Amino acid sequence: LKPTLNLDDHFCYTDTLVLDAKPKNLPPVNGIIQWYDNNSLMFNQNRALLVVPRSSGKYLVSYTFGNCVVRDSATVTPPPIIQTKDVYGCNNTSLQISTTQIPNVKYAWTFKGAAIGATFNPSLNVLPDTNYYKVEVKDLLECSSFDSVRVVGIPVPKVNINDTVTCSKEVVLKARPTNIKGVDSLKLTYTWSRNNVALLPTSNSLTVLRPDSGLYRVKIMVENCPGKDSALVRFNPIPSALKVHSYKICAPDSVEIDGGKNVGSTYVWMPGNLKTRNIKAKEAGRYYVSITNKYNCTTVDSADVIHSCIPKVHIPNAFLPDSDPGSPDKYFKVFGTDFTNFKVIIFSRWGEIIFYSEDKNIAWDGTYRGQPLDIGVYPYIITYEGTSPDFKGPYKVEGQVVIVK
Fold it and tell me: Tens digits of per-residue pLDDT, 355-382?
């Protein structure tokens, strides 16, 4: 009998595929078996079994004994390649699942053994919790691939953003779902709008700034499961702040602090607990006011009253060193208010400095080096600066003082 090789014509590739030449009627003396891959000799492949090295190709096997040569061949093709992603959906809603779309193949979807679809993207009703759906894809050569998809049913997201009426400068709306366990591990997307106009933020919170009152809507997608809510935000008017925040006075004068024109509002000023719109301030300091309108919105503001006076300096033109102790005429002393950096220099008639002081509280007693000076006229130069920035100076006064006896 003539030797034969008995390969099947076609195989579907798997990573454990082995081709068997199935030789029959071989002579007692061993012949030579050789495999070819797409007509290329495969080295060291001289047995009846061949572990297929790649997913597609034509494999030929020959058996040689003397002048007798028999051959056979088989074609290996890859199965369809599919990829199927796990999906989430809202409980008890219709959801479309899908795998890779391939032409000229057959799809068979099953759930717990029951057929549910024959396309690459069938629709199903989402069941609570986690369920697995299987798909088989078979090509024209009957090569098949299998995969499964995990479908996780979750509740419709509950989102609560509350209507808000406020006096504040801002409102923060938070839309994080409250009824889905482990929601932070899922894919979340947010879409916000104000009066049906889309807004930029895509996070779970939205900061609304005064004066942007309106109807705010949020739509949230937890994976493929949508939820939504809306809230009306209204900013009530707040009282106007003070228009003037700085006033100047010089005792004993007073100044009127204007509380502004907030019709129908109440005022409370501190210190003093005064409840008029305007107040008169007689002292320097900071005055605080709380203004509350009919919406119970309150503005707190303050005004500073600053002491600002022209320096007042009084310089005697004569004094009597020999007058009784305690007499105001016994010394030459400069006095006054609202000045600093004081300096006085007194000269003899020949220009010699006979008295110098930078302390306005130190008086000249009419002596030089402990000796009384004669009756006469003595020139002086006095310099000083104002304590108020508006009247800083510097100032300089040149004059004469007379010693009388």
Answer: 999 999 999 999 999 999 999 999 999 9
CB 247 within 8 A of CB 257: yes
Q: Which of 308, 303, 306 has the alpha carbon at shortest distance from 270?
A: 303
The C-alpha atoms of residue 203 and residue 188 are separated, in whole angstroms, by 9
152: nearest Cα among 242, 61, 108, 89? 89
Q: Give the alpha-carbon dihedral of 100, 102, 108, 111, to 10 degrees.
A: 10
Q: Residue 207 and residue 169: Cα distance in Å, rounded?
A: 10
Which band of pLDDT confidence, cut at 50, 70 and 90, is reported for residue 1? confident
Q: Give the DSSP letter string of 53-122.
A: -SSSEEEEEEEEETTEEEEEEEEEEPPPP-----EEEETTSEEE------TTEEEEEEETTEEEESSSS-
- Tokens 């702040």 locate to 241
The rounded radius of gyration (Å) of the Cα atoms in the chain is: 52
What would the two tokens of residue 129 be? 């919790």
Q: Are 74 and 19 in contact (CB under 8 A)?
A: yes
The Cα 65–Cα 69 span in angstroms is 7
Closest CA to 309 of 227, 385, 360, 232: 385
String of DSSP letters for 153-173? EEPPPP-----EEESSSEEEE
Which CA distances in Å does 38 have to 49, 61, 266?
17, 11, 98
Q: Which of 99, 161, 152, 159 is nearest to 126 (CA)?
A: 152
What was the pLDDT predicted at 29? 83
Burial class of 191 by CB neighbour count within 10 A (0 to 12, 13 to 18, 19+): middle
Distance (Å, rounded) from C-alpha 235 to C-alpha 216? 13
Quote the CA–CA distance of 145 and 139 in Å, as a whole number: 9
Q: How many residues does the chain have?
A: 405
Q: Name the residue among 328, 383, 378 with its Cα closest to residue 360.
A: 383
CA–CA separation, 151 and 87 (whole Å): 5
> Which pLDDT belongs to residue 21?
96
Position 88: which residue type? Y
Q: What is the rounded distance in angstroms from the CA atom of residue 311 to the CA atom of residue 299?
A: 38
Q: Which two tokens stand for residue 124?
A: 């199903």
